[in-house]
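Sorry to interrupt, but I need a hand with the structure work. Please put the record directly below this note.
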Amino acid sequence: MKRILYFIMLCCMTASCGLLNTVTRESQYAKMYEEKPITLLVMPPINNSTNVEAKDLLYTSISRPLVEAGYYVISPLLAMDVLKAESAYDSELFFEAPLTSFQNYFGADAVVFSVIDTWAKKGMGIETKIRYVIKSAYTNEILFDRSCELYLDLSIDSNQNGLIGALVDLAASAINTAATDHIKAARKANYYILRDIPRGKYSPDYMLDKDIIAEDKDIVARVK
């Protein structure tokens, strides 16, 4: 009898802990729901990797998932021309600085920063580590902060057996890795990072997704 009671108590404690550890989007991104940003300005990525092309490649892929999530994103081409003309292309200078000037100049409610820590070929694939931070243009507070360490596996399985088959797969994978646009890896990382963002005003799920269980803020993924 004591064993049964102990088992019941243990189950109750486990269930209780599970409920306590459940984090909704509303609690994880509380500031996002409070400020309700509509217009986003995407800044050029901060590139800490050794790939000099990563900054421009990633910049072209950020806006689409934000638009699909229901936000109005200021045209990257227009923003890039203005930022370069105003010597504001280096996002590092503004990451910790007041962002009210972007609100006044662009009408942005929030500013999207991205940080590339890794973007390189590794084995038969591409490894990326990217962090996204969305900050309020009014208060400078962080509204959204997530990162993804993603490995895009570009290996090819020809289904051939033996040593010859292995050599064929190895050669094909090497060619595939060399020819594949690195932006594919960035798009995959964007998907994993931004799929958990609270939906914006132009989404049918706007303000209706508060009770959805939030994903981890830092994620690791391996995809084909």
